[in-house]
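Sequence in, structure out.
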Amino acid sequence: MLNKRSLLLLALLALAALLAACAPATPAATEEAAPEETEAPPEETEAPPEEMAEPEECTADMYGCVVVAPGETIKIGFAGPLTGDNSNYGIDMSQGGLLAIEDAGEFEGHAFELIAEDDQGSPEGGAAVANRFVSRGDIVAVAGHAFSGATNAAIPIYEEVGIPMMSPSATNPNLTRLGSAVFNRVAFSDADQGPVDAEFLYNELGFTKLAVIHDGQTYGQGLAEQVRDTFVELGGEVTAFEAITPGESDYSAVLTAISANPPEAIFFGGYAPEAAVIVNGMAVAGLSDVVFLSDDGTFGTTFIDLAGDNAEGTYSSAAATPPESDLKAEFDARYEETYGVASGVLSGFTWFGYDAVAVLIEAIKSVAIVGDDGTLYIPRGALVEAVRATSGFEGVTGTIVCDEFGECAATGIGVFQVQDGTWVQVYP
């Protein structure tokens, strides 16, 4: 039996066990502590650089800007016939334009580039090329188009997006009467060419009876009407005013009808292939003694090649050879050295091809904005205005000044005759 002292000891032991069971557990001495974090948190990466905002001039411009990235070229379009019977015109003018590109060198780290497209000289081709240029988005301006029909079809397409044009050779008077802001030309107007032709026939050659033929197209018919009206105003008689269909190989029916009331001269408004067919058929129709005069659309090597001996003694009006200058002499030497043919042989627009491109380049330089990274911004609307405002530009053809309608010609009109297989200026 336990005594009181034993009972007290047992009670104390029980109390100690109870207190130990209620105490919080502590980790064993041998348990490893959790490792401390030794790696620093990753540093925040820099945000990608924001794209440069377009200059205020671009957002304010109704057509926006052409953006030329660093290292990219500033692209100028050229449109004209580069294949087919009239290709001499397009080839000649584009080659002149390429020399202007070469002379321009670089601007703010950007070279210039000429993008040449073949529009075949037709309205359908003109519209097709214009749409291709517009869809690219990088064509800043267009040196062209070369032919009036193609130009007429292209103007509203460029007008919509603000691409300025400077034609080397589209001469139909109505092109600058359409109210277009984008169309300009360094060539003369047929409003001037037609009277020169009529005055040469009436006053210089002394003819009073004239038959007029045209190809029914924008350029040819418009010029033929100018010649007809001026010749009648001078006191002459127009014995016939006939249309032909371009591309045919025989116009004997028209020539036979004209021979019923024989004129002293025939004027043809149109291009070289049809002019050659007419000249080659004149003798058969009894018109071998009748003088033939045409326009700048027949001036050049193609007509002489196609008409052969029948071209001898015929006349064409065209841009008068530019006055001699150091700039022209240098250009003529470079053109012949580069292309193996003298200026003005392929067409009368060699020099105009150069000046059309050179004027556009000067206007581009005047409005371009250079970004901090070398990006070039070219406001389209400002460029349209700058081209139209061209004044005092010294070109190969002379001092170029554009009026409010886009007439920028620096040279007049001459009449040329085929002598020994070569075109020779005979008037004035």
